[in-house]
Every structure is written in C-alpha cells, then in structure tokens.
Specification:
alpha/beta
C-alpha cells in the first residue's frame, strides 16, 4: 500500500522537490499537493486506502468530516467507497466563510447535533494548525472528534520537541492515523531508479531539513 501511494503521488506529479515554504514558515525541500491527485483512478485508490484505515481503526463514528478545501472531496469519496461494502457513512465539510442566506451556517452535509462524533479525513499533517482549527469549529457546535485519518504524516516537530502528530494525540486524546509517514515515503523513493529520484543536492537538502525539523517518533 505504501509503495502504491508513492506511485500515485509521482504519477500525479503531486510530489515535487525544490524549495517551498510551509504554513509554519519553514523552508521545505518537498511539497506534497494532494489537490493534484485529480484523475479518477488515482483518487479512487486513495479513497480506498482511507476506507481501509477507517475500517481497521475501530472508530465507531459514521460521519466523515473533510476540512475545506482538500478534505472535501476526500470525505465524499471515502463515504462512497465505504458504501460499496454496505457501510453507510454521512459526510460533512465546512465553508471558509459562513453562508448568510439559504440554509446558512458554516457546515454543509451531515446535520450536526450536539454530542455527535466525527472522523476527520485530511491529506497532509505538517504542524497540525489546520486540524486544530477544524477541531475548534466542531467543538463550538458540540461535536466531538473521535479520530483523525490522514494520507501522509510529514513527521515534523510541532510547537515543542514532540512531533505534531504526538502533540495532537496528547492534547485531543484521540488517535491520529496515517496511511503513510514521510520516512516510509522516502524509503520507497530510494528504491526507485536513480533517474526517478531527487538529485544529490536535493537529497542533501532533505537530510538537512529532516535533521532540523523532522521527528521520527510518530509511527
């Protein structure tokens, strides 16, 4: 499964190497944009990976929540895949700005009731900022987050010495489940022919970045 995820990222050109600034202001040697996973067969496989993780997780919630914007198609797609095996999940997502006409409000999809539990589905975990924002929005309407499932854990430090994933798990007291970690992805990448790998200078940038900001403690 992990090697197939790398294939999807490379085929979609969703994994790029160079110099990119993260939301946390760090200069990263790689950029993973799941928005580029836009062919149906690639996206279907990705949603199946999410569905399998959810089925194996033991989480009981039947509502998937996808943070705007990239989490929106994930929540819808994963619910469709789960429906194929007669597992009925609702999905919901947020608007970036509250709608002031029609049905109004911040949320679209499942009609939240106070006390509902949701599973957040998200593409990449870097510092955890966007996930915390989602948790605050949901908590404000009485919704509990039962777990978080992500495609890729970049395994970077959060605000302190722990990884962002560990910080989320410690503060929210919920599991954060990854389809793949950055360590696994880079190991898979090294198994490819040299012509398909980053250059020597890019590998050095990756190593230096991981030494400064990486955390291998979240598995």
């Amino acid at each position: 499964m992990t090697s197939r995820l790398l294939d999807i990222l490379l085929d979609s050109r969703a994994l790029r190497f160079g110099k990119f600034q993260t939301k946390a202001g760090r200069q990263s040697p790689y950029f993973i944009n799941f928005g580029d996973v836009c062919y149906g067969h690639h996206f279907s496989e990705l949603c199946r990976m999410f569905a399998n993780k959810i089925k194996d997780s033991g989480l009981s919630s039947k509502i998937l929540y996808g943070p705007a914007y990239k989490g929106i198609p994930l929540a819808a797609g994963v619910s469709l895949v789960l429906a194929e095996s007669s597992q009925q999940y609702q999905f919901a997502y947020n608007r970036k700005e509250a709608k002031k006409h029609g049905e109004g409000g911040n949320f679209v999809g499942a009609k939240f009731q106070s006390g509902d539990k949701v599973i957040i589905v998200e593409d990449v975990l870097t510092g955890g900022t966007s996930i915390r924002e989602s948790c605050e929005m949901l908590s404000a309407v009485g919704v509990t987050i039962e777990g978080i499932v992500i495609a890729l854990d970049r395994q970077e430090r959060g605000k302190g010495s722990k990884s962002a994933r560990e910080e989320l798990q410690d503060s929210l007291k919920i599991p954060v489940i990854a389809i793949q970690t950055m360590s696994e992805l880079l190991t898979d990448l090294k198994s490819l022919p040299h012509t398909a790998q980053p250059s020597e200078n890019e590998w050095k940038f990756i190593q230096d970045y991981r030494s400064q900001w990486g955390s291998t403690t979240s598995s």
